[in-house]
Amino acid sequence: MPLDILMGLPPEESLLHDSPHEYLQNLQQSMLQAYSIARRKLRACAQRRKKYYDVKVKPQQFVVGEWVYYHYPRRFRSKSSKWQNAYTGPFLIVRIIEPSNCVLQRSQKAKGFVAHFDKLKNVMEIRLIRGYLLPNNNPCQ
Q: Could you tell me if 77 and 129 lie in one domain?
């Protein structure tokens, strides 16, 4: 406080620190302790959020070599989200990363990216995609 600069520290506070160097060391130590407590609490919160998210995850089984659509909603101005296509693709599943992620690739030369199973939807019709004939997964036929 500015008053402390003019008048000096009160007797009980002047005994806490002998020098500015000691004050800085104590301040640094208390800040490190506060940061470690914050990191611990944030880690626990993240684990708790992940646990509750994983409870709600729909169990889906995907295999390597399967074609899927990737949920990637984009907002266009002056268009209702009802009329927009929220899925892009199709993408090929290149690798499964347990328990709930996979690597997708649009073509053989494209760079793969990691996606969560919740953002994937099976390709359900026969189509010619980039020279590949997709299997018929349609249960109606």
A: yes
